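pinging the channel bc i need a second pair of eyes. not urgent but kinda urgent?? the chain im working w is below, pasted from the shared doc
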Amino acid sequence: MSVNQKFYPFRHDRMFCDVLAHDPSLAKGMLELLLDVKIGQITCVNAQKVLNYSTETKSVRFDVHLLDDKGIRYVLEMETSGSRVTLRWLPKRSRLYGGILDAETVPRGTKYDDIGEAYIIFICLHDPFPPFGLARYTCRTTCMENSAVPVEDGMTHLYFNCSAITKNVSDSVQELLDYIAGRTDGETELTRRIQREVTKRNDDPDWREWVMTFEEKLMVNGEEKRAEGIAIGEAKGKAEGKAEGKAEGKAEGKAEGKAEGKEEIIWAMFDEGLNNEIIEKCARGYTKEQIAEMKRLWVASKKGS
């Protein structure tokens, strides 16, 4: 790899998926470390797996989806965005993931007792639940009237925070989070093995070209989402037939388009260290001053972590 070429770290979307999907032992090691349990033999690993319950419902795309020989299912997600909108959506996103995972992978006629456990795991560069600042949030279904009531539905949602203030995890888990955040180069056997795979891919020109093509598509998709959001908002306003309705619809459309297209893409590009030329192309319609202000906020969030 040339010294002038961008280095893709493990937290990069394509790198994360590719490394774990091509070496199930690394995925297994990460799961055992994060969950602090010994898991069964990994029998199936899928990267960027798309599940859709029906043509009429929202589909989901898992970064890494795994199944072990005990029938336990795992979803590993890497979330690099610091967008407040994106982070606010994480619990409902996790809920949707769990529901579709069950609907798509539990065979017809399965007895309820035979439905395996499932873990939806998000590794976040930024705190998903500010201002609590925990390194790990474990969320399960509970009875609000009495937390001692056993509600054993087998679904666990976990959120790991690489910018945690309170280190409520083991030293080994904290080292993994530090590695993912780029604060270390890998100090344990697991992270050193991951780093070797990361370096191998960065040195592969074909792999780098594949990733750059993906990033170009990402930019186009962000522009399309923004345009779609504006169009939806304008259509809603016109249908209401009132000036205030049109203004409201237009504002909603722009907000939706920006939230789903612009803000998430731009923050992700800041996280990945893309050059200004690429970011300005993605942020078409924004002035350099506006982009600079977004960069300032992003830098401030990094310093806060």
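so The chain has a mean pLDDT of 84. and The chain has nine helices and six strands. — does that match what u expected or am i reading it wrong
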